[in-house]
Amino acid sequence: ETLRFCVFAILFFLPGLAEARVFDPKELNFAPFIRGTGGPSAVGKEGFIHENDNIAVDATSDYNYGGELGLLIRLQDKVNIRLGAELLGSSPISGKEGLDSTGAQMFILNSQVFIFNPQFTLETVVVDGKESRILLMGSAGFATVRLSNKYEMTAAGTTALGVNSFEDVASASSINYGLSVGWEFLLVDRAMLMVEAGYRYFKVTGFTHGQDGKTLAQKTGVGPLKGDPVLNFDGSSRKIDLSGGFVGLSFRFFIQ
What we know:
By secondary structure, the chain is mostly beta strands. It has helices at 2-21, 155-161, and strands at residues 30-44, 56-57, 61-76, 79-90, 93-99, 105-128, 132-153, 166-188, 191-201, 203-204, 208-209, 240-241, 244-253.
């Protein structure tokens, strides 16, 4: 009898429980979110290759990846804004040899790009449903970009290039823009999952040195000082391109 009663109770209340778990995101105003992105990068060798035109490094930085935390705020039924703090990076170069034209090893290189990117995103619902919807999103961020190149010179490299082992840490600021389309659907209770695909325009110029000291490209006298522009071997300014397509996955937790 007890078992029969439990089965009856579950069958009786289950429709009501399921209905209670269904919600309309248009009825809620705020949603903390966590978001991850990844995709190809245009950085390639640009972070380090212009230090010296006679040294070859067989490595490229081919991908961007990142994570974002923030808050979504509903402005209207079909318009949201997102305020987020994003950490981005490009795939690092680790332990790669720098070789001269004869194949002699000049140094070991470690290179990495790290970005802190506070950003604002405007979302517009273009297809609306009770438990899923399609959104068009445009974003703008103001990023602080850190470029680190660490050179472990060999004896031959120090003799040929005139510098000892060093780490050059440079920084720059850059505005970036993104456009994406996403499909958001109910995951469980008030949690929504969104998958998206888009493109980010993100070019960085105006790097400055974070410390005093000689580099491969700037070794005249005592070398550049902290705050001086980062220059390539030909005297041009260092620049990198973090632009590229991306895919993303977001968890959004709607609250009143």
